[in-house]
Specification:
Elements (H helix, E strand, L loop, with lengths): L1 E3 L4 E3 L14 E7 L6 H10 L5 H14 L1 E8 H17 L5 E6 L1
Antiparallel strand pairs: 1-2, 3-4, 3-5
Length: about 100
């Protein structure tokens, strides 16, 4: 295979070692049900933190309500941790005990 720009031609041969790209591990962010946080607040958080449409947010909120938890999204570890912290901060400001966790996919 050849790559060419205005000054160089680089050829790749079968004998050259190829560097493999390793994808980072991904984590599911899971929101947990509690008996105090309002459904409206959960929907608001899903829309603002996880960028869900209203319809998606309602479906996830109902899973949380009916099944005890719901998956908010799948992210790299750092992004998942940041989103969880943002949810916890928003909930504390409203005096809700809303919690999120993360687990590797």
């Amino acid at each position: 295979m050849e790559w060419e720009d205005s000054t160089h031609v680089i050829e790749e041969t079968d004998t050259e070692m190829r560097e493999e790209i390793v994808e980072p591990p991904m984590y599911r962010v899971i929101m947990l049900n509690d008996h105090y946080t309002t459904m409206e607040f959960v929907v608001y958080v899903l829309e603002t933190v996880f960028h869900k449409s209203l319809q998606e947010a309602i479906v996830i909120m109902m899973n949380i309500h009916n099944k005890g938890s719901g998956i908010c999204g799948v992210y790299t570890a750092e992004v998942a941790e940041t989103k969880i912290q943002k949810v916890h901060n928003m909930a504390r400001k409203k005096d809700f005990p809303l919690k999120c966790t993360m687990e590797e996919e």
